[in-house]
């Protein structure tokens, strides 16, 4: 499947500010399951952006705006060809407890509880319900965790924040994809199964598309494979991966700082469409207008006078 993704973010300020410095993680990755054919980043006020690869292998673009401004508009446009590999997850014979003797440091780094995936006194009952039996298949355990989260927690926007710990979703019994992904990762890691956070997009035919989050799990016979606890489904050609990390804080779509005394609001919209063929090299000059409305994002924390808030995933 060939997908075009447009991801627009607007920072609006109550009065002019200066010297904004920001970085964004919006360029889709290329791996065995997808190829990013083209990527373009437009920033207004117009400024030059620079690109580097972070320590987790994610593409990062950064820029600064020195002139006085009361709004910044960022439009990231991508063309991605998805070709997920069929994964016979149930054929994996790895047993619990998982033998990680052959795993490298790049895998073992995804076993520790940290950041929003921290220990909660509300976690033990869930761990006990989902505890796998010794000698059972780990693949079945992974599937059970995703199914449990999907059926026992309610999808509800605006009840958690971008940096909410798993304690919040456990207390309220509701949240968004970011919370469900953090929760699934916590359960898997506690039981010795490496799991990492993935940010990206979900193309939903005939519905509004959205930024999305899911997790990838590592098993010896399969390597990393994706599971979406929000929809209790494996990753297919409708998913576009942008970045991976230990939790949301490693992959937030944007972060930065600015100089000035102003109240900041963040608005976001994402639109995807399927293409029949790969477009020309100048495709970004003929992008169709976005038809979905801008959505206000709940701040990561109370706005300060000089800190841009990270964008919460939907």
Strand and helix map with partners:
Elements: E1 2-24, E2 34-44, E3 49-53, E4 59-65, E5 69-82, H1 105-108, H2 123-130, H3 138-152, E6 154-155, H4 166-172, E7 174-175, H5 177-190, E8 195-202, E9 210-219, E10 223-228, E11 233-234, E12 239-245, H6 248-251, E13 254-259, E14 264-275, E15 295-296, E16 307-308
Parallel strand pairs: 6-7
Antiparallel strand pairs: 1-4, 1-5, 1-13, 1-14, 2-5, 3-4, 8-9, 8-12, 9-10, 10-11, 13-16, 14-15
Helix pairs in contact: 3-5
Description:
By secondary structure, this protein is of the alpha+beta class. The chain is about 15% helix and about 40% strand. The radius of gyration is 20 Å and the shape is globular. The two termini are about 25 Å apart. About 0% of the residues have low confidence.
Shape field: globular
**pLDDT < 50 runs, ≥5 residues:** 300-305
Number of strands: 16
Main beta sheet strand tally, sense and closure: 9 strands, antiparallel
Quaternary state of the chains: single chain
First and last CA, distance? 23 Å
CATH fold name of the largest domain, please? C8orf32 fold
Q: Helix segment count? A: 6
Share of helix among residues? 10-25%
Structural class determined from secondary elements: alpha+beta
Average pLDDT reading: 92
**CATH domain class of the largest domain:** Alpha Beta
Integer tally of domains: 2
The helix-strand sequence is EEEEEHHHEHEHEEEEEHEEEE
């Amino acid at each position: 499947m060939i997908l075009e993704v447009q991801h627009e973010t607007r920072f609006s300020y109550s009065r002019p500010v200066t010297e904004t410095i920001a970085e964004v993680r919006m360029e889709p990755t290329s791996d065995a399951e997808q190829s990013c054919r083209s990527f373009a980043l437009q920033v207004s006020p117009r400024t030059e952006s620079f690109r580097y690869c972070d320590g987790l292998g994610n593409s990062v673009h950064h820029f600064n705006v020195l002139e006085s401004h009361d709004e910044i508009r960022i439009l990231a446009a991508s063309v991605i060809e998805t070709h997920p590999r069929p994964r016979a997850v149930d054929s994996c014979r790895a047993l619990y407890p998982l033998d990680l003797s052959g795993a490298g440091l790049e895998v073992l780094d995804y076993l520790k509880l940290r950041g929003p995936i921290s220990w909660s006194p509300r976690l033990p009952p869930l761990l006990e319900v989902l505890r796998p039996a010794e000698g059972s298949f780990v693949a079945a355990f992974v599937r059970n965790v995703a199914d449990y989260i999907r059926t026992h927690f309610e999808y509800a926007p605006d009840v958690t924040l971008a940096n909410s710990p798993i304690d919040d979703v456990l207390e309220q019994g509701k949240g968004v994809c970011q919370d469900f992904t953090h929760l699934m990762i916590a359960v898997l890691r506690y039981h010795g199964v490496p799991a990492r956070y993935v940010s990206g997009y979900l193309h939903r035919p005939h519905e509004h598309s959205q930024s999305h989050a899911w997790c990838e799990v590592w098993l010896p016979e399969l390597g990393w494979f994706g599971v979406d606890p929000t929809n209790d489904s494996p990753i297919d050609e409708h998913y576009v991966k942008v970045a991976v990390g230990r939790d949301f804080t490693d992959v937030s779509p944007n972060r930065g700082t600015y100089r000035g005394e102003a109240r900041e609001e963040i608005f976001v919209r994402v639109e995807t469409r399927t293409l029949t063929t790969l477009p020309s090299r100048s495709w970004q000059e003929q992008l169709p207008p976005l038809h979905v409305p801008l959505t206000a994002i709940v701040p990561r924390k109370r706005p300060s006078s000089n800190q841009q808030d990270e964008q919460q995933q939907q």
